[in-house]
Write a structure and sequence with these properties.
Chains A, B, C, D: It is found in: Membrane. Four copies of one chain form a homotetramer. Chain A is mainly alpha-helical. Chain A has 13 helices and no strands. Chain A is globular. The N terminus and C terminus of chain A are likely disordered.
Chain lengths: 312, 312, 312, 312
């Protein structure tokens, strides 16, 4: 593994859209290195997120309530960003990766690497939480693993819609929730606007996920993430819950796969159209305005220098 | 939209009270640019805020409690500041804009632009939340959209006073709540005192809104914001709740319009009178005191340089 | 009020123990300036703190629970530090002022100014909250203002011990709670250890107050502050609750006056004895060690320069 | 105690793996200095943690719920890091010390000093909380100190497994919880990745502990710390709960002693294997890559300089 070491800078370059030609072996190693980090951060995020649901469900309210689940995923995402931040960007979400590719922040050839790594981390996390909470789950449901009913436990792993929700309503819910996620992520990382503080990005992204859970969570459990949802769903299908995990909610399973990437592009595009497009380009700034009011553009310049390598 | 680009610095100048004469077309473009940002950040704040109320009301406590609503508006405001911060200042509140104009931090000619943008964002957010929670709301109230009663849902969108509250009591409540908001906002952005950390302003303002919800919220739902309250109220009047949204609470609707601007000016004025007026002017500092104790004023100078472009 | 302006630097000097001789009129003005800031920050802290209790009590759980009160005082303290931080140090607590005087961080002659300002701010806050929640309180208790019983409301303003608590137990509780407050405050502001982040001090102090409420609050309501407790108690005695506010809890009222200053000195002294005394003096560091390992002491030096004017 | 002063830099050196030969007397003093700080920060963390449990148990829900306990330990850890951070590193946990020794971040000869200091602080904290909550505990349980049953109070001090949990399941739970703790701690302090913000480390570690309590706490109370668990357990055995504290949970007491060190090494090792090993060494960076893309490695270099003395 020692020969991965030399390809560190490549990841940074790619994320910033710079194209450096390098030996084939470096690219390959970079893929593994990024993939490992993306898998690990997704795994950590999912372990904490699913763990918080398991604790609320099996504890029947004695060990946390709905807010605990919001905090579990929020802080799980924050820890994930600490773990994968500088190496893979810690997407942990295929809709984020898809949006980044769409707007040129990630090479499309990296997309399958990200999706595979996220699926792997998410699947392993589902298995881990099942193992850690095995006795709790079986004690809670009497060994009867069901998708619906008062002692249903499939919701620990994947999302299911509220009884009143139509597929169309759920589709809109998932498109909109992911749009808000990506719209705010764009703002949090926009160095020409008011981005998250340097070093405070993980917590800022965590607070955003907390907010979505608090405000846009009750319709269908705010998956807003294809890879977060499908991998644990497949795990539960295998581990004993059966094909009901795909049938339940009028065949809900495909909605968190299809809707989030659409929403992500819409939300990020909206931020770009209404805010980012209207920032002054740095070349313009350097040429025209700074001659008129030099001292005012200095802080902006300085900030850019400080934050240039920050990528949420 | 490409020609908006050159007018970036104007917004910064205006906020700092510097008057730069520029071609008419720039001003016009600047208005649109600022208006777009102010609309978008108000929209995002309101979507998250109203969404959190919708979730608590329709979930009947299973998806959050009163604290969730406090967090929804608090973090919604924080995200709004991230989105509009450097472009429009992210007021998201006509009482804030009114106070900024009163104390010369915003040109009065910008006031209608801010108010219109806030109303637009707020109205669209109400419509969005009604669409996203359409099935949830109709499932909850059986399709019967009411302003009062056990299954009332108008409170998802606009504020209504507690049963015991008189109009005078409510007026005082709204004047005082907004006064505390602006008093603290002045402190959070006072670079000669102990302002919010650089990059931490959005969360600091969010914590302030959380605090007001926790401490000054139960009388009438802490609107403390005319544009936040009236736009969703008009939306509900149109969307099916009818004229009761204006009749309810003994004609409550005008209080969140009139009281907050008064409170805002009082609160900001109080901070100015008791604290800000007594700061040493920088010219004085530069001339007199620094000769006596040079090293002590250096940190203050440095801090000013670092934070000069921070405007909450 | 314009002539207060020139005395700005004096406050900074005094807090750092530097003794600069200046015209008598400046000293006098400085007292007023510091007093105004200390009154205002205490007022704001108390308004938010007492407001959160009023909301929980009169809302009977619908507008927050015990945690809301913890958050109300915690974030109220944070806002107070933003407001008074650079001018008075934002003690908002006579036990903090007493401890600072004891350890030479504040001149004893300033002590009465601080105590008077805190009492004034605290008393006015009690009056304000009574006005703002007047209808809520009277609706809740049917106009019958009592200190004990199921509809008691005196606890909105001052602290009262739990039924099981003896005066000795309560005395220990208040000494210990204040000791933990000052012990941690010393650490948060110790620039040679790991202090709160620059700009993050208000929130750090707020989290400390939140923690004390969560961990050391149930015995007697964690006054840990003489001026926070006695001023609202006197207000309630005058405003209609009568002399019971002094009789209740077996004459509890004097405990939050006497115990906190003792605890504060013990806690701060413990930190000094176990940690601060063993820091290397800067003169030593500059002379001896830096020659052996120069690069290691540089960060410490740099940190000192950055944080020199930070005083929680 | 004055002669401790000169050995300040030694602690820093040892934590960074630099070996400086110094007079025997300095080493000895350094041990005392580090031991005092480690005892004090463990004491403070445990006082706040145990206090929050005491408040929830004796208050029967009126003074906080499960989330309060999560917050009590989380913020207690944050305050502990502020107190011991620069002197001992504020491990407050023998599993953390064991892992640091395993990976060469702490000399093995320091291990007994850390463990003894942690045990001392933890034991004294248990005694303090018993004294402060003496009347509350005896009022709650009617003076009958029991380990099991509806009025059991032993759980205020040490952890006990859920009724459904086998020793194997609990062992896995404790290995895994501690693995997640150390995995994330490694990321939070990895200066080549996205570490906690400078000055924000205490809160970041606190959020991690909050997260573990929310996600991995219900099986057995997330001791994830041998010294946190055994010292209060011994205290309760002596103070009146008797030998049941060792018999309960099928002889649970040894699990929080043995499992956490194993988990800590596994978790930290996993982060090293998947992320840290693949960072580019600074020497490589300085030689090879910087010539190709100089400006890109500058932020990394700068960050290293700023954060070099930060050790969570």
């Amino acid at each position: 593994m020692k020969d991965f070491v030399e390809s560190v800078e490549l990841g940074v370059s790619q994320r910033e859209g710079v194209n450096i030609t390098q030996p084939k072996v470096w690219i390959k190693n970079e893929l593994v290195r990024v993939g490992l980090a993306e898998s690990l951060c997704t795994y950590v995020m999912m372990v904490f997120g699913l763990g918080s649901v398991a604790q609320v469900v099996t504890g029947e309210g004695a060990f946390g309530q709905y807010l605990s689940i919001n905090l579990g995923f929020a802080l799980g995402v924050a820890m994930g960003v600490h773990i994968g931040g500088k190496i893979s960007g810690a997407h942990m979400n295929a809709a984020v990766s898809f949006t980044m590719c769409t707007f040129g922040r990630l090479a499309w050839k990296m997309f399958p690497v990200y999706v595979f790594s996220q699926l792997l981390g998410s699947f392993l996390a589902a298995g881990t939480i099942y193992a850690v909470y095995y006795e709790a789950i079986h004690d809670y449901c009497g060994g009867n693993l069901t998708v619906t009913g008062v002692k249903a436990t499939a919701g620990i792993f994947a999302t299911y819609p509220a009884p009143y929700l139509s597929l169309l309503g759920g589709f809109i819910d998932q498109v909109f929730g992911t749009a808000m996620l990506l719209l705010c992520l764009m703002a949090l990382s926009d160095q020409k606007n008011k981005p998250a503080a340097v070093g405070g990005e993980p917590v800022a992204v965590g607070l955003l996920v907390l907010l979505i859970g608090i405000s846009l969570g009750s319709n269908s459990g705010y998956a807003i993430n294809p890879t977060r949802d499908i991998a644990p769903r497949v795990f539960t299908a295998i581990a004993g819950w059966g094909a009901d995990v795909f049938r339940s909610g009028n065949g809900w399973w495909w909605v968190p796969l299809v809707a989030p990437p659409i929403g992500g592009v819409l939300g990020a595009g909206l931020y770009k159209a209404l805010v980012e497009m209207h920032h002054q380009p740095l070349s313009e700034q350097g040429r025209g305005v700074m001659q008129e009011s030099e001292e005012e553009s200095t802080p902006l310049e300085k900030q850019k220098t400080i934050c240039a390598d920050v990528c949420v």
